[in-house]
Amino acid sequence: MGVYSELYIDFMFDMFIALKTTDGVKPNPLIAEFFKDVFCELHGGDILWAMASAGGYSYNFSFSTLDEALKGFTALLNYDVNLYYSPAIFKGWRKDKNVSRINVIYIDIDDVEGVDFSEMDEKGIKDYLYCTYHLTSAMFPNWLVSSGHGLHLYYIVNTLDLKNESCGHYTQTILLPISEPI
Q1: In a designed cystine with 179, which of 53, 64, 88, 103 is the match (CB 3.0 to 4.6 A)?
Q2: Do the strands 57-63 and 82-85 form a parallel or antiparallel pair, or are they unpaired?
Q3: Quick check: pTM over 0.90?
């Protein structure tokens, strides 16, 4: 068994208590809307995994309902921690083989030299994306999230059209329901 520092134990305890004492926590309506778009809904056995980290320590945690997740994330916003989560829904531990479904295409832009997205308004971020990546207004994501040291772009996908028109003739279209469990 490993030896844990008092700071690590304090961190783990703080995270545990924060996540267990969410009665009365009122989530921000914008964050609630984001969660409902990105995660849709959780079905029996579905798990949303997340992690809090600070000072080299990390704490993994999971939620089985969106309400629990919203309250937990809201409670943790009061702590000086970095929050990480996967937009995938899992059946079991957070490994690729346990992904049940996902309904977003997610792009993570990190560590851009000389740019602080947290100080930009929506127009400034859109101008940056247009000038840097040539994103037209039709290509902008459903959600833009300033991650503290970068940007997250979320494209909500309800169906995925796998039609191949590049070969000059119609081949086949497969529409996959993204938000249904596998």
Answers
A1: 103
A2: unpaired
A3: no
